[in-house]
Amino acid sequence: MSQDSVKQSEGAIGYVELAYAVKNGLPYAELKNKAGQFVAANFESVSAAAAASAKSLPRTCVFPLPDADGKEAYPISDFTWLLVYKTMKDKEKAERW
Fold this sequence. Notes:
Helices cover 31% and strands 4% of the residues.
């Protein structure tokens, strides 16, 4: 659903990466988290959610992050995953990354 579609749909909520929302001046909401606190979406509250969840991460890459514990944790946070080569044969390509 595009940004325009969300704006045109009464009551609709879109979900994008926080950095994208900040960069593009998109509005975002304060939400009530598991601790009963209303928390604004910002880099600190998303980091608080990740930090609270990091304590119990399993050895696999499958785990829930939404609605993390903590008064400062933003309730709809998640990770972005990157797969990165340890070594690359193409030095020019590696330097661009």
